[in-house]
Amino acid sequence: MSVTTEQLITWLQRSAAVLRENKEYLTQLDSSIGDADHGINMDRGFTAVMDRLPGVADKDAGTILKTVGTTLVSTVGGASGPLYGTAFLRAGTSLAGKFELQDGDVLAALEAALEGIMARGKAKPGEKTMVDTLQPAIESFKAALEASEPLKAALAKAIQRAEEGMKATIPMLATKGRASYLGERSIGHQDPGATSSWLFLRAMGGN
User: Mapping DSSP to helix (H, G, I), strand (E, B) and coil, where does residue 175 land?
Assistant: First the structure.
């Protein structure tokens, strides 16, 4: 099963809608351990993305994702803009010139996005960040593809693992970002970045 650039744009549109629907939820999560603006920032960023997508709708997947990345860097405040911006820029670089994505291309883009986030945020698993959602999800996705499972089934497994990773941030001690300033008071709260990452993957699976 291949993914067309039209489907890629549909996913981005769905992501924007999901972020808008969950704006208050994400902001509420962020109010406990951050600046109480994650949902607001992500919604603002993807509103700008939706404004710019028509101008690249006929371009290759790499150009589309790079446009998303540069837009997020310029419009999303806090750490989320650079982190998600880098993720989309790296994913876009991995898909340069492609108008139709095979399963391996989707995996390569996800892996590039995660590598970008980890490099930009100097983050690793277990630090109460979006990495705790994305890494287990991408590992699951890769294993499913290697077992010759269809893309949709592999994505479903990845989304489940992403949700588990997101929930696993609740008992973690934050050691990165604004939440790390709280020390042990960060324990018991779900990480907002891990949550928005789960929402992206859920939208990718069509949910």
Answer: coil
HSE-CB at 103 with a 13 A cutoff on CA atoms is 17
pLDDT tens for each residue of 36-81: 899 999 999 999 999 999 999 999 999 999 999 999 999 997 889 9
3-state secondary structure of 82: helix
The overall pTM is greater than 0.90: yes
Residue of 54, 110, 201, 65 lying closest to 73 (CA atoms): 65
133-146 pLDDT tens trace: 999 999 999 999 99
Domains of the chain: 3-204 (1.25.40.340)
Taken as a whole, the chain contains a residue count of 207
SS3 content of the chain, % helix, strand, coil (to 5): 75, 0, 25
101 three-state secondary structure: strand
Assigned token pair, 55:
């101008």
- Cβ-in-10-Å burial (0-12, 13-18, 19+) of 58 comes to exposed
* Rounded CA separation 169/191 (Å): 6
Helix or strand (DSSP H, E) at 4? strand 3-4
C-alpha atoms less than 13 angstroms from C-alpha of 146 in its C-beta half-sphere: 6
